[in-house]
Write a structure and sequence with these properties.
The chain is mainly α and 241 residues long. The chain folds into 2 domains: 102 residues, Cytochrome Bc1 Complex, Chain D, domain 2 (Orthogonal Bundle), CATH 1.10.760; 80 residues, Cytochrome Bc1 Complex, Chain D, domain 2, CATH 1.10.760. The chain contains 11 helices and no strands. The protein is globular. The protein starts with a helix and ends with a helix.
């Protein structure tokens, strides 16, 4: 056997072993995929693709013919408007099991795509939230995002362009991220302006006037107590001297 033949056999054996290793590393468990899909780790996926993969804002996944590697590639570097999930949010192994579960589901007769009809004079920011499918996770009904504003203001925050951009690029908690070619900084600013317009005036910090907070009164009482204590101590010291 010549050197070239031995080299060829070695290369073929190496490729076979590599393929077998990849297959073993991506061994699929559809039951585990079902548990992950129905759990809280990837609930955002269900908001776009449906509880049974029937498709809502995103494509139908039930009965998918995509391979596990194709699913992983789409999740890590999405096409179109789908946001990106990092491996810290959902691992390759979990995605492999999810793909096996979704592939086992029957395809629906009709995809369940959801259309949100906005009035012609809808604010630009609201239209963008529908166009970019933000409403899949951040709306209660026909593009209404009031509860999102309540959540933001509940943390003592007011929607700003900088805040929305930061959340899109480096999300807080488990939100997937959006690239600038998916939602530009200018579009994020328009969305922030719309969200800020929904903030009730009485939920914003005020300067002067009445306040419903008991903190200023508490601080006043503590300050008064400290002053009285200091004066009492000073009198006792004066008498003893």
């Amino acid at each position: 056997m010549t050197y070239i033949h031995r080299t060829f056999i070695f290369v073929v054996a190496l490729l076979v072993l590599t393929s077998l290793s990849a297959t073993m590393a991506l061994a699929q468990d559809p039951d585990n995929g079902k548990a992950i899909w129905e759990g809280q780790e990837v609930w955002q996926c269900r908001r776009c693709h449906g509880d049974m993969g029937e498709g809502i804002f995103g494509a139908t996944l039930a009965g998918t013919t995509k391979t596990a590697q194709e699913v992983i590639a789409q999740v890590r570097n999405p096409r179109n408007r789908m946001p990106m999930f990092s491996e810290a949010q959902v691992s390759d192994e979990q995605l492999t099991d999810i793909q096996a579960y979704l592939a086992s589901l029957p395809k629906p007769e009709q995809p369940g795509f959801k259309q949100i009809e906005l009035p012609a004079d809808a604010p630009a920011g609201q239209s963008l939230m529908v166009e970019k499918r933000c409403v899949a996770c951040h709306s209660e009904a026909q593009g209404e995002v009031g509860f999102l504003v309540e959540r933001i203001t509940g943390r003592g925050q007011t929607p700003t362009a900088e805040g929305v951009v930061r959340q899109l690029r480096t999300p807080f908690m488990n939100m997937p991220s959006f690239r600038e070619d998916q939602v530009s900084d200018a579009e994020a600013a328009t969305i922030a302006e719309y969200l800020a317009s929904l903030v009730p005036p009485d939920s914003l910090p005020t300067s002067g006037g009445d306040s419903s907070s008991s903190l200023p009164i508490t601080l006043l009482l503590i300050g008064g107590a400290l002053v009285i204590t200091g004066l009492t101590a000073l009198r006792l010291k004066t008498r003893s001297s």
